[in-house]
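Hi R.,

Here's the chain you asked about this morning:
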Amino acid sequence: MTSPTTKPFDIHVYLAQMEADACPRFLRDTTDVKFVDYALVDIDGDGQQEVWVRDTVQQYQVVYAIVGDSIAMLADADVCCELQFYDGAVGFNGYYTPGRGVAGATIVRDSRPAENYFQEVCIDIFNDMETLDESYYINDKPSDEESCRQFCDKLGDQISIEPEWRPIEW
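And here is the predicted structure, written out as tokens:
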């Protein structure tokens, strides 16, 4: 989106950094991530767009904030995970291997990551769903399950975003 005083968005300014930053938790094959299209979305409603990119081979997608000439990852998802959007936040939720679940979210303010949470829980699906390992983080610092639950409550209900995908021209 442009106005009379702004330049059109050029994905190529950030593309090499985005692909170098790509780190799917699950790879479908051995090919590198190569983003093929993007959409501009305003996560926090401040009028400045964030960038949602996706790779169709790895089924990997990422939402980034543009911070000056750099990018800041807000959330990513792969074939075992899905992005989730909220009013003012973006998150992910996925299930990997038998018994390993991950989730997280970033609250966006002024088109920058403001607060985040991440959790990973591993359970023994063959032994009464016993918890084998669990990790919880708030703002990249170790936390606990209850604090992460409270963070999730702040996010509110999920919302639907219908992006206008634009091909990345090479």
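One quick note: The first strand starts at residue 37 and ends at 41.

Cheers,
M.
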